[in-house]
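ASSEMBLY PREDICTION REQUEST
Request ID: AP-0331
Submitted by: J.K., bench scientist
Number of chains: two
Total residues: 362
Priority: normal
Notes: Please return the full assembly, not individual chains.
Input sequences:
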Amino acid sequence: MIDLLAAAIRIATRLLLAALGGILSERAGVFAVGLEGMMLMGAFASIVGAWAADNALAGVLLALVGGAAIGVVIAIVTVRFRADNMVTGLTANILAAGLTSYLLRALAGEGRPIAIHLTPLPPWLFPKLDQIPVVGPLLFSLPPLTYLAIVGCIGLEALLLRTRAGLTLRATGENPEAVFASGAVPMRVRVLAVVACGAIAGLGGAVLSLQQVGTFTDGMTGGRGYLALASLIVARWNPIGAALACLAFGAAEAFEFRLQGFGVPVSSYIVQMAPYVIALAVLAGLGRSSRMPASIGQPLQWD
Amino acid sequence: MALLGALEPLAVAPAALFVGMLEAGAHSMQRQIGVPSALIVVIEGITMLFVLAATVRRS
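STATUS: Completed
Returned structure:
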């Protein structure tokens, strides 16, 4: 049971980081459909960085840059050129999928993908604290990026609800004219939010590739960006809520592995569907009762 | 692709033809000179982003 929960926390990390980025972007008024591409780019950049520099930290930093690069593209097209958020996000996902597969092959130089295998990041153990029953394995013996996600979640909640910058960001998603009247520049706020979203979602991708698998394969995010998008909507654009939603999805996925381990006579494909079916059911149940930021997806006037 | 074309139904046919040409050429490009066919996906993505950015929206 504790084992299952610990696995759920580890699996939830990548979703949570992507969802946190998405909250930043959507609260500022830009739909975060590009999360998938940002994650994929981050996953790729982190593996290449860690492999080239032989240093996990370099990989993590490059994941921030890679995700932010997709964020910059989305920000320019949606905010500066006022294009449709949804289509732009989907297109950016296609671009990221193509770019990562292409670069993976270009690195090898002979049309075949380069094979990089690294050891996944080991957990950081807090001495003494990790010996506490129940709490120890759940909170004090996690991989490094998971700690970062937990701190980031609490930090984002504080930033959004307790600081002036957070207020400006939320106002940009609700009523950009009011932000403009108060002296801030809505366009700048949105661009910064989308780029930051890219960097954080890129970290989510790094969790997947660098922390969990140790390699990169084509399209390895496999829809997890969309699952992160669903979880932030379920959580109503709230960081702490997003953490709980991601934990639920993580638990579903962790349970799937256990179920296969026990040899339960259920097709593994059925079980793989579970997180997505849960997401659909919750979203359908929530219906229109979830109020999104008022001016999300609406282009800004020139300013 | 359909999303891009959906902005203007009449533009779907030439857009699809363009993409079809790219994809048809992708494999022979990979076979003959060893350029990864994933490059075509990159070109598609970039093309669509530019078209999106160039389409001025009337709100």
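REVIEWER COMMENTS: The first helix of chain B runs from residue 2 to 6.
SIGN-OFF: pending second reviewer
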